[in-house]
């Protein structure tokens, strides 16, 4: 896979992961002033159609695959919105549900892919995970650089 395609793949995966990882740049300043909704504004999911189009390019999806991926991503977006709007959930429960939704979404998408596409998709997800960890470590996560086995996994 060429470097250009890999970068686009990472972008698509970043958008997928951004739907369940709080990111400062996704904050919506027009959100209601209710303090319970403050964290919800930071968790805006990317547009499912745009995300599916990016994945279609990176994974060379057929039109049928693209339409099915779009439906899966739209469903995920609805589920995530429901979880984020559920004020009765404790933060750790909310994170667990969001992770579960993401895992289910990945499984559904994987089921649509050819073996070669599955390999590419796994690579995209792994690269995105590494980028997020690097960004998290670089953003001032003090105490997280103990030199343990996860600090240099390459």
Automatic annotation (TrEMBL):
<feature type="compositionally biased region" description="Low complexity">
    <location>
        <begin position="31"/>
        <end position="41"/>
    </location>
</feature>
<feature type="region of interest" description="Disordered">
    <location>
        <begin position="31"/>
        <end position="53"/>
    </location>
</feature>
<keyword id="KW-0732">Signal</keyword>
<feature type="region of interest" description="Disordered">
    <location>
        <begin position="126"/>
        <end position="154"/>
    </location>
</feature>
<protein>
    <recommendedName>
        <fullName>Periplasmic heavy metal sensor</fullName>
    </recommendedName>
</protein>
<feature type="signal peptide">
    <location>
        <begin position="1"/>
        <end position="26"/>
    </location>
</feature>
């Amino acid at each position: 896979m060429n470097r250009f395609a890999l970068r686009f793949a990472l972008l698509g995966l970043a958008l997928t992961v951004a739907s369940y990882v709080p990111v400062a740049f996704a904050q919506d300043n027009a959100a209601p002033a209710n303090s319970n909704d403050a964290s919800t504004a930071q968790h805006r999911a990317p547009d499912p159609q745009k995300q599916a189009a990016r994945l279609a390019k990176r994974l060379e999806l057929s039109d049928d695959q693209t339409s099915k991926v779009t439906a899966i991503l739209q469903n995920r977006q609805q589920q995530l919105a429901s979880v984020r709007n559920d004020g009765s959930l404790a933060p750790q429960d909310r994170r667990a549900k969001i992770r579960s939704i993401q895992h289910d979404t990945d499984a559904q998408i994987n089921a649509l892919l050819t073996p070669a596409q599955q390999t590419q998709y796994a690579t995209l997800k792994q690269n995105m995970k590494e980028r997020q960890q690097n960004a998290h470590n670089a953003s001032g996560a003090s105490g997280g650089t103990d030199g343990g086995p996860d600090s240099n996994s390459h």
